[in-house]
Design brief:
The protein is mainly α. It has a single domain (3-191), classed as Four Helix Bundle (Hemerythrin (Met), subunit A) (Up-down Bundle), CATH 1.20.120.80. Helices cover 80% and strands 0% of the residues. It is built from five helices and no strands. α1 packs parallel to α5 (166-191), α2 (55-79) runs antiparallel to α5 and α3 (83-113) runs antiparallel to α4. The termini are far apart.
Length: 192
């Protein structure tokens, strides 16, 4: 590889990182808007003051935190040239991400079992916001899982090396963002 190809590769890598950060910034603004609307709506008379989040949401939070650690370990393994260990940690992250989504849906069923639905006569503005915000986060976790599957596929094809981790790093950055976003949301729901 000559210097021109190397420079082009570096520029393309920076462009991909910048695109990811722009996407993250737009997602932050979207969720900031929804949590702001949640705060404004909490002044309504029909707001549920004593609503408790489903226990499954807390379990899913722990699973998502662990999945960030497994992604970190995957990246560390690749930096050390331990490709098979990297793959194992990537698959662990995938499993934990799927488990996160499963526990989110269990949490939704817990809310429904309390008599609150997303819409309709049995809905509450409080739980409707929780359903909406959590579901949109789940959609982004699905996007994170798709990117993780791409990373796993590229890993199986030997695309990553200790010196070429761009795809792995981009996938990890997005995954960690989703983790931090959910931590913010769960703390927001808990304390507000």
């Amino acid at each position: 590889m000559d210097l021109t190809e190397s420079t082009l590769e570096v520029k393309q890598g920076r462009a991909k990182q910048m695109m990811l950060w722009f996407g993250i910034a737009s997602l932050l603004m979207t969720f900031a808007g929804w949590t702001s609307a949640y705060i404004v709506s909490s002044t309504r008379e029909d707001w549920l003051k004593d609503f408790n989040l489903p226990s499954s949401f807390y379990i899913s939070t722990v699973l998502l935190i662990i999945s960030s650690f497994t992604y970190i370990l995957a990246k560390k393994a690749m930096k050390e040239g331990k490709s098979s260990r990297c793959t194992t940690f990537l698959y662990s992250t995938l499993g934990l991400g799927i488990a996160f989504i499963s526990f989110q849906f269990i949490g939704f069923s817990e809310i429904v079992s309390q008599g609150y639905y997303f819409t309709g006569p049995s809905s509450s503005v409080t739980t409707s916001y929780i359903f909406l915000i959590a579901m949109v986060h789940i959609l982004h976790v699905v996007a994170g899982l798709i990117s993780l599957i791409v990373v796993i596929y590229n890993q199986s094809k030997g695309k990553y090396t200790p010196t070429n981790l761009l795809g792995l790093q981009l996938g990890a950055t997005f995954w960690h963002f989703l983790d931090l976003l959910w931590l913010y949301l769960i703390l927001f729901f808990y304390f507000y």
